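Lab meeting, item 3. Inverse folding demo.
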């Protein structure tokens, strides 16, 4: 794992955007893995600005998001579909048909997981996966204890994850209890991974990631086994 230290959230976002833009420009048809949450918002803002100023085009980019809440429709303001539209897709020239997010409203969620995993494979896999990290070491919604062999699957969200995400909902009760997430093995198949980490709330997770052994009790630790991981972390997260 290569670690790049930057001063703050803005610099993390700028550095990450340069990396993503270089990949888009150097590839005929890049497949990007995308994340939601507070961490990548700044990156998406930088990509939008670059699209407007420098004309980087997404007409040949395909995207696969890590996860979606079960029970939230595409129209729900808290769905990750809405997050991606308002934070990125509506502001760049990517055809929506080239963007993929698991459906949280599928009649058969297990079948939706299989369909999603197959779609990633049929697209030739993910070239560059953007990741954040949870305070408990989760990546995507892969909570501690998730098998490293897991493909896209249904998860029961831990209370700590629901509490961390409650800030976006009216109350904790409204935070869904389940989600569909790419699994650890789906993430590890990506050819390259860019992990973004910012703020002192992630300091303990960063320390564990750097110092601890690889264990299913701390999902992000598996990244140590991936051949091409870059971590862009700010000083607060690395202190
Ligand atoms: P955050 O979430 O970016 O909102 O901190 C990261 C995560 O839980 O993976």
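The presenter then showed the designed sequence:
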């Amino acid at each position: 794992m290569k670690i790049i230290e930057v001063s703050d959230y803005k610099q993390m976002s700028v550095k990450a955007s340069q990396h993503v833009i270089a990949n888009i420009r150097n590839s005929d048809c890049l497949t990007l893995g995308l994340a939601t949450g507070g961490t990548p918002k700044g990156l998406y803002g930088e990509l939008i600005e670059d699209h407007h100023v420098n004309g980087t085009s997404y007409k040949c980019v395909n995207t696969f998001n890590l996860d979606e809440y079960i029970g939230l429709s595409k129209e729900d303001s808290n769905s990750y579909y809405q997050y991606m539209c308002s934070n990125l897709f509506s502001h760049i020239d990517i055809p929506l048909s080239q963007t993929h997010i698991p459906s949280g409203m599928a009649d058969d969620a297990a079948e939706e997981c299989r369909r999603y995993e197959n779609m990633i494979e049929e697209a030739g896999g993910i070239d560059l996966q953007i990741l954040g990290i949870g305070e408990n070491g989760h990546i995507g919604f892969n909570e501690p204890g998730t098998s490293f062999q897991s493909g896209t699957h249904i998860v029961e969200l831990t209370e700590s994850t629901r509490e961390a995400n409650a800030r976006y909902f009216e109350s904790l009760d409204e935070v869904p209890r389940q989600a569909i997430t790419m699994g650890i093995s789906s993430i590890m198949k990506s050819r390259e991974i860019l992990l973004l980490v910012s703020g002192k709330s992630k300091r303990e997770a960063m320390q564990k990631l750097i110092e601890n052994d690889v264990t299913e009790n701390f999902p992000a630790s598996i990244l140590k086994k991936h051949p091409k991981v870059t971590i862009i972390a700010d000083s607060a997260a690395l202190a």
